[in-house]
Amino acid sequence: MTVCLDIRGLEITTADGGELVSDVSFLIESGGMTALVGESGSGKTLTALAVLGLLPAGLRQRSGAIFVNGIDLARCTPKQRRAMRGRDMSMIFQEPMTALDPVMRIDRQMLEARRRRFSPGGREGAAWCREALAGAGIDEPARVAHAFPHELSGGMRQRVLIAMGLAASPALILADEPTTALDSINRREMLALLGGAAERGAGVLLITHDLRSVHDWADQVVVMSHGRVVESGPGEEILSSPKHGYTKDLLSAASPKALSIPPKRE
Q1: Residue 178: pLDDT band by 50, 70, 90 thresholds?
Q2: Residue 99: pLDDT above 60?
């Protein structure tokens, strides 16, 4: 087993000591997808931002350890952690209009992400952009590559973000509610892209409220409530035999149809 993310006893507090995340621990294996599930404000996104070293101003990691590919992030300089973003670990944010640069064409933004690890230029870079966009399910990759974000639909912008997140072949992909605003068809296609990255060896952390996504794609599930992990384990086990009352409440709030669809991953 190769572990690409190991979080041990993570605690995140406000500047005055208010506790937001407490004693969070879990692993993500390379080649697997872990779903981090819980209501808004449960600490899911803060946990992912702590991995990236991007906690909002006024918040800090008070204790705990985070290892990415065996590297203790606490021993890295700020410059080293910046270098790891996009190259060793990437994040796909929930809202593409704020994550994408509104005054930069799509191909330039994608090439910036690609250059975190590779050195595409000229025709090679242009060809890669078209291939990456086509691989993300975009029908007119040449047109989209030269477009600005506001010229694309929400679904297309989300596909661009996923293509950018995969651009440098990172070992760890953090996806924060990447399908919230999408219809069911686009949602399944987006999750298939992330599932494909896991099948190629990346570790994927899927932050989601969507229990259908968890059922179809997640190998492991971590359930958070009020900044703490209340239950974790294999996805099928958590969904079929939840032990914690909060997990049971989440499942009872999901539609029966969402939990009756057979898994799509082999």
Answers
A1: confident
A2: yes
Is 99 within the bounds of a domain? no
Q: Which residues pair with 67 in a beta bridge?
A: 6, 72
- Domain range for 134 is 105-169
CA–chain centroid gap for 200, Å, is 16
pLDDT exceeds cutoff 90 at 64: yes
pLDDT attached to residue 129: 95
pTM of the entire predicted model: 0.90
Q: Is residue 118 part of a domain?
A: yes
pLDDT of res. 108: 95
- Residue 158 forms part of a structural domain: yes
CB count within 10 Å of CB 50 equals: 23
Instruction: Return the structure tokens found at 27.
Output: 């692993």
Amino acid 200 reads: R
Instruction: Write the Ramachandran bin of 69: left for phi over 0, alpha for psi from -120 to 50, otherwise beta.
Output: left
Shared-domain flag, residues 182 and 163: no
| Contact status, residue 155 vs residue 137, Cβ threshold 8 Å | no
Structure tokens at 10: 């993570």
CA distance 263 to 235: 11
> Is residue 129 in some structural domain?
yes
